[in-house]
Amino acid sequence: MAPFVATLGYRFNTESDFVDEVLASELEILEQTGDVYCPCRMRTGDPKEDLKIVCPCIPFYLGQFAAMRKCWCGLFIRTDVKDGAELIGVIEEPEPGAPVDVPVCRAADLGPGQLRHVKVGKQDIAIARVGDDFYALSNVCRHAFAQLADGVLEGHEVMCPWHGWRYDVRNGTTDHPDADVKTYPTFVKDGLVFVTVE
After folding, report:
1. What's the N-to-C CA distance of the chain in angstroms?
2. Are strands 123-130 and 157-159 parallel, antiparallel or unpaired?
3. Model confidence pLDDT, tens digit, residues 67-102
4. Which residue from 71, 98, 136, 147 has the fewest beta carbons nearer than 10 Å?
5. Sheet of 133-138, strand order
6. Do 55 and 13 touch, CB atoms closer than 8 A?
7. In whole angstroms, what is the distance from residue 137 CA to residue 106 CA?
């Protein structure tokens, strides 16, 4: 689990006794159910919904967890948290619409000229790397709804893979009327790419 969550900007909680307790609970759940469900979440019986609470469930709740700086139970904390003890247990979620800086990938995992699709909550976002700069924009072409992250990046323009519409990754503009896409602020900190979402 540790190598995977590290790619998302998380690590095990610093409270080792707590980590051992949660992992022991997950092992019991694994023996009973055949999967490692989060011990602090209730299963619904719907396999599609329950998939979202298999540990680690960080990819399904990127925005919420980034704001809380931990997963639901606190087994995993963001790498920028010094003391995980303060994050054990239930924590108030941020107000809806409040800006949240979400770690989406390691900078080293996206080479210059590459694109990657990430999902933050219900938002599909394309991450583009141009040189040492990172940009984030809506992943859906406004023409025929193709995934821009599947396109080609030429300089600061991503070309839609279906019909070649071009979008500027810096501001989401295109030369087609009323077809610009949303962009998101990005920054790199401690080797992680962050996208600010609301």
Report:
1. 28
2. unpaired
3. 899 998 899 999 999 999 888 766 666 777 788 899
4. 98
5. 115-120, 123-130, 133-138, 183-184
6. no
7. 18
Whose tokens are 């998101």? That residue is: 184
SS3 26: helix
Asked if 166 and 189 count as a contact pair (C-beta separation under 8 A), the reply is no
Q: What is d(CA 5, CA 21) in angstroms, rounded to the nearest whole number?
A: 19
Instruction: Kindly list the distances between the CA atom of residue 29 and the CA atoms of 50, 60, 88, 188, in Å, as whole numbers in the listed order.
Output: 13, 20, 20, 37
- Give me 172's structure tokens: 């989401």
Nearest partner of 184 among 169, 173, 174, judged by Cα = 169
Task: Quick: pLDDT tens for 120-176.
Answer: 888 999 999 999 999 999 999 999 999 999 999 999 999 999 999 999 999 999 999
Q: Which two tokens stand for residue 126?
A: 């394309």
Q: Which two tokens stand for residue 196?
A: 């600010």
